[in-house]
Structure formats: structure tokens, C-alpha cells
Amino acid sequence: MAPACAGNVESARPSAFFRHCLAWLLTFIAVVIGWVFFRAADVDAGAGDVDGYVWFNGVALPNAVAVRLGDFWACCLPGV
């Protein structure tokens, strides 16, 4: 006997695929952040590195790229 939801299998696939991709992405981010703390000299240094990654501290563009982006670049990143 087929399950009661057997007729709704096609509509369930995109949702399952989305959940799978989201789970993969969250796991990847957690591993990358874990690597930062593993390689840092201490917890404070690791926290400073993660803070820099999240807020894009130290991001620099070559002048040719910055000219093409114009004001768009300045409005996208805080403190630029």
C-alpha cells in the first residue's frame, strides 16, 4: 500500500532540495569559521579575523575596478 502522500511527491522535491542546499551551506560556513579559530594564535585573534570577514574590513579594490563601480562600491560596504 502506497503512503498517503505518494501523489504529492513531485511538489516535495524542491523543498527537500532547498533544505539539503541550505544544510550544506550552513555546514560549510561553520567549518570555515572553525578553521579560522583553529589557525588563530588565540580566541581573541580568531574573533577579530571573523569580525573582519563579516564586515569586510581591509577590502581593497584595484582603481580600475573601483572606477567602474563608482558610487555603488561606496554604498555597499560600511566604512568605505
Output mean pLDDT.
79
Structural domains: how many:
1
Number of strands: 0
Major beta sheet summary: none
Rg to the nearest angstrom? Answer: 21 Å
Helix content: over 70%
Order of helices and strands, N to C? HHHH
- Structural class determined from secondary elements: mainly alpha
Give the N-terminus to C-terminus distance in angstroms.
63 Å
Overall outline:
flat
Total helical segments? 4
Contiguous runs where pLDDT drops below 50 for at least 5 residues: none
Strand content: under 5%
- What oligomeric state do the depicted chains represent? single chain
What does the model show?
This protein has 80 residues and is an all-alpha fold. The protein has one domain. It has helices at 9-39, 43-54, 63-69, 71-76. Helix 1 crosses helix 2. The longest helix is centred in the first third of the chain and has 31 residues, at 9-39. The chain is flat. The termini are far apart.
Labels describing this entry:
80 residues; mainly alpha
Furnish the topology, listing elements before pairings.
Elements: H1 9-39, H2 43-54, H3 63-69, H4 71-76
Helix pairs in contact: 1-2
Structure described in brief:
The chain contains four helices and no strands. The protein is mainly α and 80 residues long. Helix 1 crosses helix 2 (43-54).
